[in-house]
TrEMBL record:
The keyword Nucleus does not apply. The lineage of its organism: Bacteria, Bacillati, Actinomycetota, Actinomycetes, Micrococcales. The keyword Transport does not apply. Its cofactor is Zn(2+). Keywords: Hydrolase, Metal-binding, Zinc. PANTHER family: ADENOSINE DEAMINASE. Belongs to the metallo-dependent hydrolases superfamily. Adenosine and AMP deaminases family. Residues 20-366 form the Adenosine deaminase domain. It is an enzyme of class 3 (hydrolase). It comes from the Bacteria. This is adenosine deaminase. Its EC number is 3.5.4.4.
Length: 371
């Protein structure tokens, strides 16, 4: 399915970009506009590999397509380097919200790690406040343009550092000022969620929602720890849950599968999988199944009844959008609009909002797809 010059695609005569969408797994430092990076880096005297925005976009895409999460993460050194002042953080957050709205997103959760934005002298509270200011500016700008969007913060701790309890307390402190949930991110393999049990215990005691990066660069032990130690309500990626499925036979569209206990728990509890197809290809998360979109276990998980959702992970690194990810999946697996609607309803059901607001989002999605 070709994507046109405006980043749109058409399915059954419907513009995918125009459809209402929910974004659950969207990194702020993975969504900085290349033109903005060039401008801010030039003002700060920071080196950039390319001085033109389009060329820098190419550099991100090429550098990220490494087959390794560790290599993929190295590109964030550049994006975070221009996110060290209040003004820059506010601008980048505002542009992020505007870009979500242009992608058809009606509700999004933006995840980012405050501890990575302190080299300019700001405090943890300063950076969260700066990002919230930008989010609100973006929401207002989108409203002025005649559209509605709401964005909440997922305050994130880096799993390879020792600040998770401090960041968890920061997240709870901002629960009435924009923070809707908590996450841990960074290098997954070798850094199980169990290392952050004190933070997760604190969050559980505060009834504060948690999603955990798991099942991307590490396997079932990581997912198990996310659920047992992290009390995760969603799995960040979670694609390797498919390792706990034994495909016994395939005959046409009929697949006979034996479930492991972990996979059955995730499926039966309807724990949302924050799948990011393009990113999963770039980082090698689906290498066990192949290296093409059609090899992604997304469709297997969907057909077996898992709560699959579609996400971008990092718009800049993967040079993508939710519109593009939906188009790629529709092309790879011959999905129709009903399937794409299911993915959005799954996401709406999993957002970190009260049940009444989740139901409102589901209604908005159904109305949008009906139109």
């Amino acid at each position: 399915m070709p994507i046109d010059q405006h980043g749109d695609a058409t399915l059954d005569g419907v513009s995918l970009r125009s459809l209402p969408k929910i974004s659950l797994h969207d990194h702020l430092d993975g969504a900085v506009r290349p033109d903005t990076i060039v401008e801010l880096a030039d003002a700060a005297g920071l080196p950039v590999p390319e001085s033109d925005g389009d060329d820098l976009a190419d550099w991100f895409a090429e550098s990220s397509d490494s087959g390794s999460l560790v290599e993929y993460l190295k590109t964030f050194d550049l994006t975070t380097s221009v996110m060290q002042t209040r003004e820059n953080l506010t601008r980048i957050a505002r542009e992020f919200v505007e870009d979500l709205a242009a992608d058809g997103v009606i509700y999004g959760e933006v995840r980012w790690a405050p501890e990575q934005h302190l080299s300019g002298g700001l405090s943890l509270e300063d950076v969260v406040d700066a990002v919230q200011e930008g989010i609100e500016e973006g929401e207002d700008a989108v409203a002025d343009a005649g559209h509605d969007i709401r964005v909440g913060q997922l305050i994130t701790a880096m799993r390879h550092t020792g600040r998770s309890l401090e960041i968890a307390k920061l997240a709870v402190a901002f629960r009435d000022r924009g923070a809707v949930g908590f996450d841990i991110a960074g290098p997954e393999d070798g850094f199980l969620p169990s290392r952050h049990r004190a933070a997760f215990d604190y969050l559980a005691a505060q009834f504060f929602p948690v999603t955990v990066h798991a099942g991307e660069a590490a396997g079932l032990d990581s997912i198990r720890s996310a659920l047992l130690d992290g009390r995760a309500l969603r799995l960040g990626h979670g694609v390797r849950i498919a390792q706990d499925l034994e495909v016994v036979s395939r005959e046409g569209d009929v697949v006979e599968v034996v479930f492991g206990d972990l996979a059955r728990w995730v499926r039966d509890r309807e724990i949302p999988l924050e799948l990011s197809p393009s990113s999963n290809l770039q980082t090698g998360a689906i290498a066990a199944w192949g290296n093409e979109m059609a090899d992604h276990p997304f469709d297997l998980l969907y057909q077996l009844g898992f709560a699959v959702t579609v996400n971008v992970d990092n718009r800049t690194q993967s040079r993508t959008s939710l519109t593009r990810e939906l188009a790629l999946l529709a092309e790879a697996f011959d999905y129709g609009l009903d399937d794409l609607e299911t993915f959005q309803i799954n996401a709406a059901a999993g957002v970190f909002l009260p049940v009444e607001e989740r139901e409102e989002l589901i209604d908005l999605i159904s109305e949008g797809f009906d139109r």
